[in-house]
Specification:
Layout lengths: L1 H100 L1 H14 L10 E6 L3 H13 L3 E5 L6 E5 L5 E4 L1 H21 L1
Parallel strand pairs: 1-2
Antiparallel strand pairs: 1-3, 3-4
Helix pairs in contact: 1-4
Length: about 200
Amino acid sequence: MSNKLQELTDKLYNEGLSKGKREAESLLETAKAEAANILAEARRKAGEIEAAAKKQADEIKSNAEAEIKLAGRQIVNDVKQSVENMILTSAVAADVKRAFDDAGFVKSLISSAMTKFNPSDSNPSELLLLVPEERKRDFAEYLDRKTAAGLEAKTDSALKAGFKIGVKNDGYYIGFTDEDFVSLFKASLRPKVSELLFG
């Protein structure tokens, strides 16, 4: 009987051991499968993160390159405009300043402007002429004659050269200053100078 008990004990032990091994192997397989799934999911997420980071980096690079190109074009345009401006100023400003330093030339401009200036059929008595404070003496006799003819003339400390003419009490004036003429000549010459310099 003790033999049977021993056999029964051994059988139970072996069956229990065998069942335990199977369960352990099953648990191990399940754990391996779960680990493989977790690893695959981690790799997938890492791939997504890497792809998103690469996409963002590419966008940043692309935007930076576009900004650099735009800034480069702007700098080139600014340099071109500066060169054009220097050339135009040196070509025009000195001669215009010399012309506006000539009181006779300015007086002839005033006469022409008065002749041509006719807003709403204004007569000379409705016109107001502004001349530079610094040039008052140069124009004193001339302005006295014009004032006697009905033109009102005043000095303007903001004016450095030339004159402004307008209708009294209307508040607007048309400028005939050296800056106005330099700007006018520069505007008309700029396309030709640009073509000569930059093609």
